[in-house]
Amino acid sequence: MNPPTSLGPAARRPTAGAPIGPPPGSRAGRSRRLGLLAAAALPVGFLLFFFAWPVVAILLRGIGEGGLAETLFDVRTWRIVGFTLGQAAAATAVAVLAGLPLAYLLSRLDVPGRGLIRVLVTVPFVLPTVVVGIAFRALLGDGSLVAIVLANAFFNVAVVVRTVGGLWAHLDRRAEDAARALGASRLRAFLSVTLPALRPALGSAAAVVFLFCSTSFGVVLVLGGARFRTLETEIYLRTVQLLDLPGAAALSLIQLAAVVAALAAGAAARRRRETALRLRPADTLLHPPRGGDWLVVGAALSVLIGLLVPVVTLVIRSLSTSTGFGLAGYRALAGEPADGVLAVSALDAAVNSLRAATDATMLAMVFGVLASVVLARTRRRGLAQLLDGLLMLPLGVSAVTVGFGYLITLGALPDGLRSSPALVPFVQALVITPLVIRMLLPVLRAVDERLRQAAASLGASPWRVWREVDLPMAARSLIASAAFGFVVALGEFGATSFLVRAETMTLPVAVARLISRPGELNTMTAYAACTLLILVTAAVVALVERIRLTGGANALGEF
């Protein structure tokens, strides 16, 4: 039977991803809503228990114990705030300037080894923060402001490359060609035509990079020492060494306000970027470098070499001893605990890291898949945006703040759970679940709703519809997000450092303790452990890039 013509062509030919389904008031519509509510209950409950509760506890401690007013009127607080924001702004500027030539190369130019370049650009973003801090310490010596800024920029060049490059690939080249034909120089055409068109992506990338740099912990902890402190490291210092919980809570409250403001700015910039992507068809035809392109290629390769130098330096230092090259650090990884610094061997710490990262990845996949399905199927756009924003909060809020929140709230937990090693995977899952959502959600939203409706009309249950329609299309993204989440969990340091016990120490925490102690063997063992983490990270990123090339998701997802 043909559909009534009065419905119009738009009704007869729904667009891909449109929220088509049974009427809301029907029995099928009510069942659909109940199913979405049930699917949302687990990730929302996880968010409330492991994120909202400790963060709210910090807010109440900061307000209720009188530490807030004293901290707010302390001139040292605002020096720390100023340094936190200043180094974040400087690192953001460096990352944006360094990322632009690489974004152009990967989005516009046909050059050999593009896949390898993508891997080399992405690896720094997922390296453990403590590893990057130690790499720049090995390269530049003890901490300085320059080292902190360069290390934070090193982390975030990939964000600029992926975010700006994603929009650059969609820009219509004819507008820039027309400007050149009218006599504009290449630079003027870029400044007057291309740069304004890239503004949504630049704003989105800058907001995300600034957020990550302002909440950077491991880098500043390793490089800053006693001279340079950000809100992150000051919260850690007051909590762990000074036991000033009210003061730390007040600083966490200040930082939380700044993070929420940055997240709001980032969300607005991301919406503008998504709008720009929808308005511009893809223009992905690559061309070989010609003319002035070679200057951009040279700049991009210079940035790439700059990304490799700290990593190569760290690897060389892991093999260097006072008497020449050797493997003492690598042998020590499997040896006994070093000079009483560690309660377990570095090998045991590595096993703990692998176990915790595996458990965290499994948890994050469950929470992330359920949340992505709910967000992709929710018809109310405002509700979906609100839920999406809430689920993204753990990505922006300081891991140190969350870890400190656990110290406050652990007393309310049963003794068995309070000392359970299972807390570490749950904390790591909190960090990586937003990344899983960002990688899966665009794929699920792109599935043609008519395929789901056709399967349902043939009698398939909601589970079978997911298994037969969504799962095959999202399979590559599921694998990529699991691999990506695993490597991020493997290197998580901020919140984990608050919760690990001697017997559950992870490798990043062990590295931080080793590097803080004197002795050549301790330092070489730390360098060797960092090298192993780099190799694992690079292997996983290469796997994700291979999946992307065969039809998977962007290795960084959508920010």
TrEMBL record:
Residue ranges, compositional bias (Low complexity): 7-19
GO biological process: transmembrane transport
CDD domains reported for this sequence: TM_PBP2
Gene3D superfamilies listed in its UniProt record: MetI-like (1.10.3720.10)
Spans through the membrane: 34-60, 80-104, 116-139, 145-164, 205-228, 248-269, 294-316, 360-378, 390-410, 422-441, 477-500, 524-544
Keywords: Cell inner membrane, Cell membrane, Membrane, Transmembrane, Transmembrane helix, Transport
Region of interest (Disordered), residue spans: 1-27
InterPro entries tied to this protein: MetI-like (IPR000515), MetI-like_sf (IPR035906)
Topological type in the membrane: Multi-pass membrane protein
A cellular-component GO term for this protein: plasma membrane
Similarity field: Belongs to the binding-protein-dependent transport system permease family.
Protein name per the record: Sulfate transport system permease protein CysW
Higher taxonomy: Bacteria, Bacillati, Actinomycetota, Actinomycetes, Pseudonocardiales
Gene name for this UniProt entry: cysW
